[in-house]
Every structure is written in C-alpha cells, then in structure tokens.
Amino acid sequence: MGLLAVALHDVEPATYERCALIRDWLADLGVDRVTLLVIPALDLHPFHDRRPELAEWLEECARGGDAIAQHGFQHRQVRRAAPPRQLVARVQGGTAAEFVGLDVDETRRAVLAGRRLLKLAGVQPRGFVAPAYAYTPALRATLATTFDWWAGLGRLHRADRTSTRAPALTLGTSTAFKRWTSPSVVRLGARLSGDLLRLDLHPADLDHTRCVGAVEKVLKAARHRAAVTYDDLAPAALL
Predict the structure, then answer these.
(1) Full DSSP string of 34-94
(2) 32 φ, ψ to 5°?
(3) How confident is the chain (239 residues) per 10-residue block, as mean pLDDT?
(4) Are 198 and 169 spatial neighbours (Cβ–Cβ below 8 Å)?
(5) Which are the contacts of 88, defined by CB distance < 8 A and separation ≥ 6?
(6) What is residue 88's predicted lDDT score, i.e. its pLDDT?
(7) Which residues of 163-180 are buried (b: 16+ CB within 10 A; e: fewer)?
C-alpha cells in the first residue's frame, strides 16, 4: 500500500491562518495525519504569546493525530560561518540556515530554548527539522540526546542511530524559475517514490496555482497510501 508523510513547514504566528487553511485543504484531499513544523520564536518572542490561538490549534491538531515538531528556534541565521560553509548555507536556504556558524554551546542553547517554549505552550515535540535542512556536527550531536528523531532532506534519522531513506519532495517559490519547474519535479519524484512518499509544504505554496495543482495531483494519486507522521516512523525512545 505504501506510506505518505506530509510535513507543513514554517508554522508560526504570521502564517497561522494560512497553515490552518492548508491543513483543512489536506484533510479534504484525504490526508488525515500531518507533521507540523513549528518555529518557537521567529522574532525572539514565544509564539504562544504572540498568538495563543495558534497553541490551541496545535493542541487540537495533536489530539486529531498530527505530530508537532520543532523547526529550529528563530529560523534565521545569526552568525556567518567560514566562506565555504557559508556559501553552501546560502544555497541551502539563504538566511534561514539558522545553525550554520553556531558553536556547540550556542547550538545546544538554541535547541533547548525552542523545546522549552514549545513545552510551555503545551506542545510535546518528539522530533526536529532544521531550517533549510542545514545541519552541522554540533546540531546532530545535540539532537542525538534530545529528540527521538530528526529529518534531513534525504533521510529520517532516529535516536537509536537507524535511519530511513526518504527524499523530501519540495516545491520552490522563491523565483519564477522554481515556481515553473518545481511542480513538475515534485510530480515526477512522487511517481518514482518507493514505499514512503515524503512531501514538504510551505505556507507560500498556496499562493501559486501550479504548486497547488501539483500537490493535488500528487495526493490524489497517493490515495492508496496510508498517511503517517514522522512520529509514527520513529519509536518513542527518549520521552
């Protein structure tokens, strides 16, 4: 039958209404379980202070079977790395490569601060996804002792050091070229996917007709797959 894992990125106060709309749209398309990636403090203010209703919505989604995961701390790079690594970070995600340039202590403080904010809001995250999928050795070392899983662009990693190969299919909307080509790439990737089809969505995707059409086609073709969250794909080893 196969599995379908949809992740909605960049959930934060400014995107709350759009994310809720996307979640309802996914439900209409038959996706009953989604992984919601929450930015704890985009502007260095706790997300639940800015929008208490967002925290309430997340609790409601979790009760309905969705997974809530931590998506960095503020989703913004605050310290430049050495030129070669900085160039890679810029290609990966521009200013979103939050953990590139941070040392071990800074990395751990940011991760734990974000997790603490989520717990204060009533959310118990079991997993972590780095902004722009920009991981560093310091970040991986921190996550190995903090979360049950963390997801990279190509694999889902677990705390027991096992992993599952699952390339994330992601739409690009930052340039006209990406908006034109990425829907076709996502549709092709979905057709070639194996037992696990992994689809990333961002709030801006709903602004573009070609992106919306591509997602609808992929999900309609994947109706035979069982929807799962990233939590479902990892054992509860730490919490």
Answers:
(1) -EEEE-S-TTSS-HHHH-HHHHHHHHHHHHTT-EEEE--SSSS--S---HHHHHHHHHHHG
(2) -100, 0
(3) 95 97 97 97 91 96 97 80 59 71 93 96 95 93 95 94 93 87 95 95 94 96 97 71
(4) yes
(5) 100
(6) 54
(7) bbebbbbbbbbeeeebbe
- Domain presence at residue 235: no
Structural domain containing residue 154: 3-228
Report yes or no: 178 and 172 within 8 Å, Cβ to Cβ: yes
3-state secondary structure of 110: helix
Closest CA to 67 of 176, 154, 147, 133: 147
Is the whole model's pTM more than 0.85, yes or no? Answer: yes
Per-residue pLDDT tens over the stretch 215-234 = 999 999 999 999 999 999 98
CATH (domain of 64): 3.20.20.370
Q: What amino acid occupies position 216?
A: E
Residues with Cβ within 8 Å of residue 131, at least 6 apart in sequence: 39, 71, 72, 75, 76, 93, 96, 97, 98, 99
**Token pair 């310290």 in the structure block, residue:** 79
Q: Is residue 200 part of a domain?
A: yes
Q: Tokens for 95, please give them.
A: 């200013």
First to last CA, the chain: 30
Residue pair 196/166 in contact (Cβ under 8 Å)? The answer is yes
